[in-house]
Amino acid sequence: IVAAFLPALGGFILLGSIPVIAPKLRDMGTAGLLLYVAVFALTSGFAILPTFAQAALGGYAFGLALGLPGALCGFLGGSLIGYFLARGVTGDDALKGVQQHPKWNIVVRSFFPDREGDGEHRGFWRTLGIITLIRFPPNSPFAITNLVLASVKVDLVPFVIGTALGMLPRTAVVAYLGTLVEGEISKDALSSARPGWYLPVGIAISVAVLLILARLGDLAIKKAVARGEIDTSGPEENPGSSDAQ
């Protein structure tokens, strides 16, 4: 619940405070940039503030040359905090829940074969590719994604690299939009600075990623059925079973 709703609320508060915060950070020079990175990491990692608003703050306060690297360091630090926080909170519960549903288990194993506690680390590139794909859409929720990926115990290395690769394009765009705003920054000011192609391209990317993930999951289930890993005669032919109920 916190990961889903608190960042959105915090984003509105931050956008309203940026005109006050940004000049102070800028006047502090290097110390201000380091403070920005540290606060970005902590507030995004603990699901307090969204990466979108903080990336805009970086561009607005420091320009693209410093704001973008600062935002990248901030969300990478936040992803690490979110990863270990989620691992501590969820423990093995999420994986145990997934393993109770054969199809879910097949999809998770197919998407993230390189997982901690899964025995062999045999699918680094596939895991990296899926994480990058999940992070790529501009509306991909940062805190919830941290929670989900950590709870199914994806390995830390592809998690960090995939997060960096997937979030770089959208972070660069938002930081750039922050540099374009003149006067007080706000959601309306960012919207007016946003190019016309941003929204339709963002929607198209999100839909494309969902379709790709759905297709990959469907193929994984079909292969598992063909190998006999999933019993297709289950609940439908046994209406008295607890699963059917």
Could you tell me the mean pLDDT? 86
Helix content: over 70%
Q: Which stretches of 5+ consecutive residues score pLDDT under 50?
A: 235-245
Q: What characterizes the major β-sheet? A: none
- Computed CA radius of gyration, to the nearest angstrom: 20 Å
What is the overall silhouette? elongated
Continuous helix count = 10
The SS-based structural class is mainly alpha
Determine the N-to-C terminus distance: 28 Å
Q: Give the strand tally.
A: 0
String of helices and strands: HHHHHHHHHH
What does this protein structure show overall?
This protein has 245 residues and is mostly helical. The protein contains ten helices and no strands. The protein has helices at 2-27, 30-45, 51-90, 93-99, 102-111, 124-135, 142-151, 156-180, 187-193, 198-226. 33% of the residues are buried.
Quick synopsis:
Helix content is about 75%, strand content about 0%. By secondary structure, it is mainly alpha-helical.
What's the helix and strand layout?
Elements: H1 2-27, H2 30-45, H3 51-90, H4 93-99, H5 102-111, H6 124-135, H7 142-151, H8 156-180, H9 187-193, H10 198-226
Helix pairs in contact: 1-2, 1-3, 2-3, 3-7, 3-8, 5-10, 6-8
Features:
about 240 residues, 10 helices, mainly alpha, disordered C terminus, about 0% strand, single chain
